[in-house]
Amino acid sequence: MSRIGKLPIKIPSNVDVICNGLDVTVKGKFGTLQNQVPNVLGLEKTDGTLVVSLKNKTRTGSALHGLYRTLINNMVIGVSEQFQLKLNLNGVGYRASVQGKSLVLNLGYSHPVNIDIPDEISVTVEKNTGITLKACDKEQLGLFAAQIRSWRVPEPYKGKGIIYEGEVVKRKAGKSGK
Fold first, then answer.
1. Residue 86: pLDDT above 90?
2. Among 51, 53, 69, 154, which is 20 to 30 Å from 15 by CA?
3. Do 89 and 141 share a domain, yes or no?
4. How many structural domains comprise the chain?
5. Could you tell me the residue range of the domain that residue 46 belongs to?
6. 147 — phi, psi (to 5°)?
């Protein structure tokens, strides 16, 4: 049985969770998220908590139990607090700016890179090299951050590229092997 799946989800007072059969809708200060739970799982809502229960014990059912408990918990956290990711640009001349609904990156190419910002994600740029992303949907936030990062993945020799905050880039010695 899943240890994570057994844990109850605490619902803050400013969040509304609506369970309609297998559909889950979470409404909060920062938006509304929806998800559909597989039929091997059940949802039980009591005052202030939501419990994801397993109907029949199978290997896939146990795996889905922990997964969907975590997905619903992330939905509750996202609509009440929002998720935040920070990216840093490391490299000479690397800059970022927000122009309207697009993120403009200068990454050493002969042209600036324009990336359209999704409506659900807010982007701020600090000191031209720090990008802060905020959204209530953790999955979309991670996908957008990966899309930005794919333009310049950090390289191991000089450490240049787009790096997540707190990420450690393992460095290599050059040709001389210093």
1. yes
2. 53
3. yes
4. 2
5. 9-80
6. -65, -40
